[in-house]
Design brief:
Layout lengths: L14 E5 L3 H12 L3 E5 L5 H8 L4 E3 L13 E4 L4 H10 L5 E4 L12 E5 L2 E5 L6 H12 L4 H20 L3 H10 L3 H5 L2 H13 L7
Parallel strand pairs: 1-2, 1-4, 2-3, 4-5
Antiparallel strand pairs: 6-7
Helix pairs in contact: 5-8
This protein binds ligand SHN and 1,4-dihydronicotinamide adenine dinucleotide.
């Protein structure tokens, strides 16, 4: 069996179509909102949350049954209707090159969604390749307890350091050495101020910073 190919997509401003307005559609829309997609929902009926998002203009809602032209120009399509025949109709209207998730049958679309949690810039995504979405959810829940807010702050620090090192240290070996040293557990455990100072000391060790 071939594996799914995991990818972190930038879908900011990209046209995303969600067909269906039930709780499953709502969950998929929440994920698309976090990624700032340009979302249109097609469904005659929708959950309270979906109607609120539409009223707040966070998404567009076409209150009708899906038609073949609804998938035109979409970067990504998710179909989450409780009737397989309708999901099939959506699939038939979609171009094979478009990204399509069939919430009712993973074998028919070309992508599936993982369970995930975020802590700042960290995203932990877990997939069971569709074998047990419930288990994927349990695993992310278990993992999330290992990454609290301080981890998000530590990652912010690492991000700033990396930008700094890339702009001031020319030599690839030194760059790598500094960026590896700040991954030591002791750095993670330090206070914000202490780690900042230790980092600057590392940068000036072994001669002045490259110009
Ligand atoms: C293939 C996939 C396609 C897709 O939708 O992307 C798919 C398909 C199906 N899910 C079904 C059931 C459930 N799905 C969940 C939950 C989630 N499902 C998600 C993803 C995926 N679900 C993809 C595979 C992911 C993977 O395994 O890697 C998560 C991870 C992400 C998300 O939805 O964003 C989200 C957790 C979010 C979180 O972490 O909180 C729960 C648990 C719950 O709701 O609490 C149940 C009940 C328990 C169980 O079944 O395990 C059914 C059967 C419907 C029926 O009974 O007919 C189908 C259809 C089928 O199997 O054919
Ligand atoms: N992937 C996943 O994580 C899961 C997927 N499922 C699948 O997702 C399906 C949807 O689940 P729910 O949201 O709970 O169902 P639901 O019954 O709450 O919602 C179905 C939605 O489809 C809309 N709809 C019906 N006909 C339509 C049409 N012709 N055009 C556009 N919209 C139409 C309805 O207005 C309704 O909003 C389930 O039938 C099941 O196959 C179920 C559980 C989890």
């Amino acid at each position: 069996m071939s594996h799914y190919y995991p990818i972190m997509l930038n879908i900011q401003g990209k046209k995303a179509i969600v067909v269906g307005g039930g709780t499953i559609a709502e969950r998929k829309i929440r994920g698309l909102l976090e990624a700032d997609a340009d979302i249109t929902v097609i469904s005659p009926v929708a959950t309270e949350q979906i109607s609120r998002w539409a009223a707040d203009q966070q998404i567009q809602w076409k209150q009708k049954n899906v038609e073949p032209s609804d998938t035109d120009g979409a970067f990504l399509v998710i179909t989450a209707v409780n009737e397989p025949a309708v999901n099939q109709k959506v699939q038939d209207s979609a171009d094979p090159e478009q990204l399509l998730c069939r919430s009712d049958d993973q074998t028919k679309g070309n992508f599936i969604l993982p369970s995930l949690f975020r802590q700042g810039k960290l995203t932990v995504a877990v997939s069971t390749s569709g074998a047990s979405p419930g288990l994927a959810k349990r695993i992310t829940k278990e993992l999330s307890s290992s990454y609290d807010e301080s981890f998000g702050e530590y990652l912010e620090f690492l991000d700033r350091c990396r930008i700094h090192v890339k702009s001031v240290i020319r030599e690839p070996e030194r760059r790598k050495s500094i960026l590896t040293q700040i991954l030591d557990q002791e750095f993670q455990d330090m206070s914000g101020q202490e780690r900042e100072q230790r980092f600057l000391a590392l940068c000036s060790e072994g001669g002045r910073e490259d110009e």
